[in-house]
Design brief:
The protein contains 20 helices and 7 strands. Helix 13 packs antiparallel against helix 14 and helix 13 packs parallel to helix 15. The C terminus is likely disordered.
Length: about 425
């Protein structure tokens, strides 16, 4: 095999037995494995970060089901291209030699416009094609509702250390180039850190180190060599635009850390790099809620207004709006109390399951429900002084549990004092 073919392509798996990661989807009880075993593949969208196996998984499914495999890139394809492929699939489905339903794989489906996505609806609903989409963006924002209703969304996760370890060993032992060289792995911390759960990144780093080591010499992998080679070739492991995930991470952490200068710098990097403005604006909305939160509730209003303004005025003026919001959020007091409260509540939900809703809180639209005691004894808060009355709102097993704990800022201090004053006093009708 030619050394010019990237290592990541040379090692691309062709079956689930060689596929690394995503055990929740392709493991023994994984939904995708079960679909493949049944031979009936439904349309779905794979959502996950780069380098976790979305394209590879689609190709494995097509090969295992002996289905024709058509690929479109949302970056380069238009409605005409979609219709041409669908016409081919229709003709194929009428053939007496047809085996499985043709698979149409659309990479970066989040970049398809509404009209492009609309052009898929009929073929997906009629079963002309099995659609497999791949996206790094949240489909809830980027995929139209009619298409979402016709597909399932499966989330792919970044590879964990165990996965990366297996990938590294496979590369050293199975790759036709690396397996012929003496490779000495002394340290893996930097390698795994720079890979960041991305299989392609890890293999591209290995490729870089192997190619920069003269033939006849041992290919040594340690933290110093990995760091040195990547600093000399900063884009060598970033061939598919993964760097923007590192930069958006630095951007978010700078806002969280109340450093407006660093936040604006990373914003400038994204603006100059041609990043999608809506991608940045969505992150600002998330930061406003997750990191600024109740310490300054107006932050979420401004972030939403920023997202709306980006859509209204477009580019390049939109960068000014992004800058204003970025500086505002970085300078705002910070609180993650609502984010942490939800996390704590979700842990309890997972541990306790579906605890029953107290009868007095249940809706009672029918006579039978009223006879069973639904809604009986409920106290309408607005009928009491201060619009508050002491009453049980949590399930019986969780009475007294506190999920929300205020952070140290004036806004939440006032909220807490208000709650304490209500709970401390007796309500009267």
């Amino acid at each position: 095999m030619s050394n010019n073919i990237p290592l990541a392509e040379r090692l691309r798996p062709t079956s689930l037995d060689d596929y690394i990661g995503q055990r929740h989807l392709v493991g023994e009880n994984g939904i995708i494995r079960k679909m493949m075993e049944s031979g009936r593949i439904n349309s779905f969208i794979l959502w996950g970060p780069p380098g976790v196996g979305k394209t590879t998984l689609a190709k494995i499914i097509a090969a295992a089901t002996e289905s024709s495999f058509y690929t479109l890139s949302a970056v380069t394809s238009g409605v005409k291209d979609v219709r041409e492929v669908i016409d081919k699939c229709k003709a194929e489905s009428r053939s007496m030699f047809a085996k499985g339903r043709p698979i149409l794989f659309i990479d970066e489906i989040h970049r398809f416009s509404k009209s492009q996505q609309d052009s898929l609806l009929g073929a997906v609903e009629q079963g002309v094609v099995t659609l497999i989409g791949a996206t790094t963006e949240n489909p809830s924002f980027e995929v139209i509702r009619p298409l979402l209703s016709r597909t399932q969304v499966y989330t792919l996760k970044s590879l964990d250390i165990e996965d990366l370890e297996q990938l590294l060993q496979n590369a050293i032992s199975s790759d036709p180039v690396l397996s012929k060289r003496k490779v000495e792995v002394m340290e893996k911390t930097a390698l795994f850190r720079f890979a960041g759960g991305d299989a392609r990144k890890l293999l591209n780093i290995l490729d870089l180190i192997e190619q920069s080591t003269p033939m006849g010499e041992t290919v040594v992998i340690n933290d110093d060599i990995v760091t040195e080679r990547l600093q000399e070739n900063p884009m060598a492991y970033d061939r598919n635009g993964e760097l923007h995930y590192d930069i958006i991470s630095a951007f978010i952490k700078s806002i969280r850390g109340s450093d407006p200068d660093a936040a604006v710098y990373w914003l400038a990097r994204m603006v100059e790099g041609g990043e999608d403005p809506e991608f940045i604006a969505r992150r600002l909305v998330i930061v406003a809620s997750e990191d600024v939160g109740l310490a300054n509730p107006n932050a979420l209003l401004l972030a939403n207004a920023t997202f709306d303004a980006i859509r209204k005025i477009g580019w390049p003026e939109g960068r000014i709006v992004l800058a204003e919001c970025t500086v505002y959020l970085a300078n705002s007091p910070k609180s993650n109390s609502s984010y942490m409260a939800l996390g704590a509540a979700m842990e309890v939900v997972r541990a306790t399951g579906n605890l029953p809703v107290p009868l007095h809180l249940r809706n009672a639209p029918t006579k039978l429900m009223k006879d069973l005691g639904y809604h009986e004894g409920y106290k309408y808060a607005h009928n009491y002084k201060g619009n508050y009355v002491e009453q049980q709102y949590l399930p019986d097993n969780l009475v007294g549990t506190r999920f929300w704990k205020p952070c140290d800022n004036p806004q939440e201090a006032r909220m807490w004092q208000h709650l304490e004053s209500l709970r401390g006093g007796k309500s009267s009708e």
